[in-house]
Design brief:
single chain; alpha/beta; five-stranded parallel beta sheet; four-stranded antiparallel beta sheet; 10 helices; binds zinc ion
Length: 350
C-alpha cells in the first residue's frame, strides 16, 4: 500500500518525540516519568455493580494506542475509503481514537456514534447510499441490525458500496462475523480493546487478533483461559491467550488473543469457565439463523435471543429446542432461548 511507508515513518517520528527531549538526547528517567504522567483524556467505565469509574489515559498511552490501531487499519483501508464510525463517543476513548486513526490512514470519516439521536439508523442508511460508504466500524450487533433495517425497507445491503466491516466493542464468534459478511457482501474483521486500553489486540491478514505485546504485558489468571490481566491489573474481561510457541500463519510472533466477553457474563461450568462467546459458537452452529444475536447472563442462566430471516419457513419451536439442547449438551449450563423473525427483532430485544 502506498501510504504504509509514510505512516510508519510518521509514527516512528512520533515515538521518538515521546521517548526523547525536544533538544535531542534520550530523556532522563525522571523526565520520562513526568511525561508519562501527563493526562491526556478522561473516560469512564461501568464496574460489575453497575456504577461508573473514572479512567484517565496519559498522553503517552493515548498516542501509543492510536499508533497501533493506525498501523493495523492501514492494512485494511486506503485513501479512497469512506468510513462510517458508529462506535461510542461519549466518555469513552474508542470514538475519538477511530476518528484520528481513519484520518491518519488518509480515508474520509463520517462519525455517527451510537446514540441514535442525530443520526438514527434510517438516516445512516441514506448517508451510506449518498456518499457511497465503503467501510463500517461498529459492533457486530449494529452491523446485523442495520442490515435487517435495510432489508425491511426493501433495500439489499449487499448492493451498497460497503466492502469492509471492522467490528469493535463487542466480542463475536467467527461464525457470526462470517454471517454478517455474507449479509453485506463485505469482508469482516475484529479489533479488541478494554475500557482502560482502547487498543489491546489487532487483526492480522489471517483474521487472528495479536496482542500489542511491545506495549502491554498480558497474563491470564489461572492458566491460558480466564480473566485477562494487563500489566498485572485485572481487566474484568475473559480471554484465551494462546501459548507462546503457537505460531499464527501470518508469521507474527505476538501472542494470539481470543476475547470471550466480560467476566460478569461468564459462569463456572462442569469443565471450567463458560462465557457468552462459548454459547454463541454453539448457537451459530445452526445454519438457518440471521446474524442477529444477544446473550445476557441472569441468575446463572444464559438468556439468548436470535433470529431467522423468515419464521414461516422454519419450525421455530423445534429450532429453539435444538439450540437450547445443544448449549446444555456441549457446555453443561442452563440457557433460555428465544427465536424471532428478523422483522420482530427490535421489539424482542428492546
Ligand atoms: Zn496472525
Amino acid at each position: 500500500m502506498t501510504t504504509a511507508a509514510s505512516i510508519t515513518t510518521h509514527y516512528e517520528h512520533f515515538l521518538s518525540l515521546l521517548t526523547r527531549d525536544a533538544h535531542g538526547p534520550a530523556r532522563t528517567p525522571a523526565a520520562a516519568d513526568s511525561r508519562d504522567t501527563v493526562h491526556a483524556r478522561y473516560g469512564e467505565r461501568v464496574d460489575p455493580s453497575g456504577g461508573t469509574q473514572p479512567i484517565v489515559l496519559t498522553r503517552d498511552e493515548w498516542i501509543r494506542n492510536q499508533i497501533d490501531l493506525t498501523l493495523a487499519l492501514d492494512r485494511l483501508l486506503t485513501e479512497d475509503d469512506v468510513v462510517v464510525s458508529a462506535v461510542p463517543y461519549e466518555l469513552s476513548f474508542i470514538g475519538a481514537e477511530v476518528d484520528r486513526v481513519i484520518e491518519m490512514v488518509g480515508a474520509s470519516v463520517i462519525s455517527v456514534g451510537t446514540s441514535g439521536t442525530i443520526c438514527p439508523m434510517p438516516r445512516l442508511l441514506g448517508l451510506i447510499e449518498q456518499y457511497e460508504v465503503t467501510a463500517l466500524v461498529c459492533s457486530p450487533r449494529f452491523a446485523a441490525e442495520l442490515a435487517g433495517l435495510a432489508e425491511s425497507l426493501g433495500k439489499r445491503p449487499q448492493d451498497t458500496a460497503i466492502r469492509r466491516i471492522i467490528c469493535v466493542g463487542e466480542v463475536s464468534s467467527a461464525e457470526r462475523l462470517d454471517r454478517i459478511g455474507t449479509t453485506w457482501a463485505a469482508r469482516t474483521c475484529a479489533l479488541y480493546g478494554t475500557p482502560t486500553a482502547p487498543t489491546v489486540a489487532v487483526t492480522c491478514e489471517q483474521g487472528a487478533l495479536h496482542l500489542c505485546d511491545h506495549r502491554l504485558r498480558a497474563e491470564v489468571r489461572g492458566g491460558w483461559r480466564g480473566e485477562l490481566l494487563l500489566d498485572g491489573i485485572p481487566t474484568g474481561e475473559a480471554v484465551e491467550l494462546c501459548p507462546a510457541d503457537h505460531r499464527c500463519d501470518c508469521g507474527s510472533t505476538s501472542p494470539v488473543l481470543v476475547p470471550l466477553g466480560s467476566m460478569t457474563s461468564a459462569v463456572r461450568g462442569p469443565d471450567g469457565l463458560v462465557t457468552a462467546l462459548d454459547v454463541e459458537r454453539i448457537v451459530f452452529g445452526h445454519g438457518r439463523l440471521a446474524p442477529h444475536f444477544v446473550c445476557v447472563l441472569r441468575d446463572d442462566t444464559f438468556h439468548v435471543t436470535c433470529a431467522v430471516p423468515d419464521p414461516r419457513a422454519v419450525d421455530v419451536g423445534a429450532l429453539r429446542r435444538a439450540v437450547r439442547g445443544g448449549i446444555g449438551e456441549a457446555l453443561g449450563v442452563e440457557a433460555e432461548v428465544t427465536v424471532v423473525g428478523v422483522q420482530d427483532w427490535s421489539t424482542a430485544t428492546s
